[in-house]
Each structure stands twice: as C-alpha cells, then as structure tokens.
Write a structure and sequence with these properties.
Layout (H helix, E strand, L loop, with lengths): L2 H17 L2 E6 L5 H13 L2 E6 L1 H10 L15 E6 L4 H9 L7 E7 L2 E4 L4 H5 L4 H25 L4 H12 L1
Antiparallel strand pairs: 1-3, 1-4, 2-3, 4-5
Helix pairs in contact: 1-3, 6-7
Length: 173
C-alpha cells in the first residue's frame, strides 16, 4: 500500500469516525468464511456497518478525529474490525446473539455517544443501553400516565371538580 493510499484510508476512517456516534471495535479473527458471511448478514439486518481495518491506520484516524477516544486505541492489537451503528446497542445485540453459536466476535471496546467502554466484559452493559428512541418512548409513556389518570378521574367523578379531586385522592392513597 502506497503512502497516498494509506493517507486516503486514514481520511476515510476519520470521516467515518466523525459521522458515527456509536463505534464498536471487535475481534472477528478465527471465523471461517461461512461464519463471517453470517455475521455480515446479521450486521446488515441490524443496520450495523462492519469493516475490517488495520490497527495503525485506525489509530491514526482516531488521533486525527475531533473525538476523544480515551483508552480505545490501547485495544488496537491483533485482528480488528469496526462496527458503526445509529443505535447504541445494536452492535452489542448482534455480537451477543452471534456468540450463542461462536466464541467470536470479541468486544474490544466501544464509543457510545462520547462514553467509552473497554473490554469484552462490557458487552451486557452495552446490550442494556437504551436507544434515544426507546428513551423518548419511556418518557412519553411516563408523561401520558398522569394525563390518563386525570381523564379517567374526570369520567368517573361525574365531570365535577370535587369528583375529580375525590377520585384522584382515592387513587393516590
């Protein structure tokens, strides 16, 4: 690979790092062609981009990036693949599901919305992270609950203020 080609790869990686808020670093070495194809298919279905990278080039891209990757560059040893996703927990779910049949991929680390996770022992934590959409759904559900109580109290309280207060106080108590 020429110096110009390396420079172009670093620029491309730097752009991908800038464009993605959720970045996973994994080791998929040892997977045979069939298993690798299955993993790529699982990633595609989960809207996760998977790419094998050279450690030195990814490290230079991380250095060139505006993001602070903390200890993640220390994980760049051996075989390295990068997984990009719009949803913070999608790559973790793909890895966990795939590991039911295989020992790999191993999670080296992740950068999720500026938070850094290092080590395969973080996989369950990452699976449990809620996406922005899931959090918004939870908040909307919590906000709707009191409104539903008021509407229900109005209906059962005969549409009067005293009926509303009485019904709500009974439910609260």
């Amino acid at each position: 690979m020429t110096r110009e080609e390396k420079s172009q790869v670093i620029q491309d990686l730097t752009a991908q790092l800038a464009d993605n808020a959720n970045i996973y670093i994994a080791d998929i070495s040892g997977l045979n062609a069939g298993a690798t194809s299955d993993l790529r298919r699982a990633c595609f279905k989960a809207n996760v981009k998977l790419a094998v990278v050279k450690n030195t080039l990814l490290e230079k891209a991380m250095e060139a990036s505006d993001k602070d990757f903390g200890d993640l560059p220390t994980t760049l040893k051996g075989n390295t693949s990068v997984m990009y996703s719009e949803t913070g927990n999608a790559p973790a779910k793909v890895i966990k599901a795939f590991r039911k049949k295989s020992e790999k991929p191993l999670l080296k680390g992740a950068f999720i919305e500026e938070a850094i996770y290092v080590g395969d022992d973080q996989l369950d934590t990452l699976v449990d992270i809620k996406s922005r959409e899931e959090l918004i759904g939870d908040i909307v559900g919590l906000l709707q609950s009191p409104a539903k109580n008021v509407i229900s109290a109005l209906k059962s309280g005969g549409n009067t203020l005293s009926g509303l207060v009485k019904t709500l106080s009974v439910r609260e108590g």
